[in-house]
Amino acid sequence: MEALIAKTAEVLATSKNAIALTGAGISTESGIPDFRSPGGLWTRVDPGEFSIDRFLQNPSRFWRMHLDLKSSGDFDLASADPNPAHYALARMEQMGILKCIITQNVDNLHQRAGSVEVVEFHGNLLRAACMKCRSLEPIEDVEARIESGESEAPRCRNCGGLLKPDAVFFGEAIPSRALMISQVQSQKCDVLIVVGTSLQVYPAAQIPLSVKLKHPPAVVVEVNREPSSLHEQVTDILMIGSAGDILSRLLEALETRVNLH
Fold it and tell me: Catalytic residues, which ones?
């Protein structure tokens, strides 16, 4: 592992446009379950509950389920804190090494760790958005209104439109701005760090494929508990283990290198 960390530090230190792609695996160490693994959220909740069609059919039922998941602790994003992996990526951005993070996560932990250039590919569950005027409200304000009995299907304070968590549900398109920025960053990048994602969900999984088709191709570094579904096709450096541990050690190697130069 030390040799792989040293090699990755060398690659990153000499890069011009390194970016990261993160998935649920980076946040499991913060106590947030992933979706697809044994014990993941989909073993407890029908994924169809997070489809836009079902939400529109019965929004009050969705919001009740949302509050139940939070109160049970099964999916309480607000109480989770960033872990060493989030902080390591934020520090790499501060050092000027990492140019942006494209995240599939909806937990706001990258921003709370201090990362600034974060592209939320699947939105953010810590906000609610009006489906009519697109104005945003903190999710805890909306939850308080439901719990007080004001409304089972909360409405926008501005226009009366239906409020929905500001995350991409099944059947919805990726936000066009996130898609555009991701495509631009993918074309510019020379190193892609893939952290905590199985690379099974498209179009996010297209990103490592696209950076390998560039001329010259980007170097893909993968940090995962187990190899992603695309590791044989795209990964140049594969490090298996805890994202918090590996990224902290990588950061240490980078900081040592910077101090030596």
Answer: 122
